[in-house]
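Below is how a single chain appears once it has passed through the pipeline. First comes the sequence as given, then the structure the pipeline wrote out for it. We keep one example in the README because the format questions we get most often are answered faster by looking than by reading.
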Amino acid sequence: KKNVKIVRPAHTYGPGFNKSDNRVIVDFINEALSNKISIKDNGKSIKTFGYIGDIVEMFFNIILSGKDEIYNTCGKNIVSIKELATEISNNFKNCKVTYAIKKNKSNYINSDNSKSIISSSKYIDEFKKKNFTSFNYGIKNLIKWLA
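Resulting structure:
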């Protein structure tokens, strides 16, 4: 029997992203550098984010000693796009968040899911993980990396 593990990460963020990455979190930081974040719709979509350091730790634990075959890997940060934009703008002086009047037809990953909530409860129960990187701290680290 082969020891195969499948890990399914949520929206991962943190240092290491390229400034030209087209994910919403990087787009918002790039826009914030010009003091204006533009949300393409009402900002109500919800995503589960996981900080890269937490996700890497989870990957290694699963690969080295996971008891099961399939795991979700994410943090505990369930955040709306509006909350994401606000969190990023709070790290910049005089940065404003604006909203599109009409929903923009372009999608980031060809997905229009209004909710993408993922749970790592299997991992948390098995490995007794209690502490995850706070969203605010993770955003600050990503901004430092990209700025």
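Strands lie at 6-9, 11-13, 36-39, 46-51, 70-73, 77-80, 96-99, 115-116.

See the next section for the split statistics.
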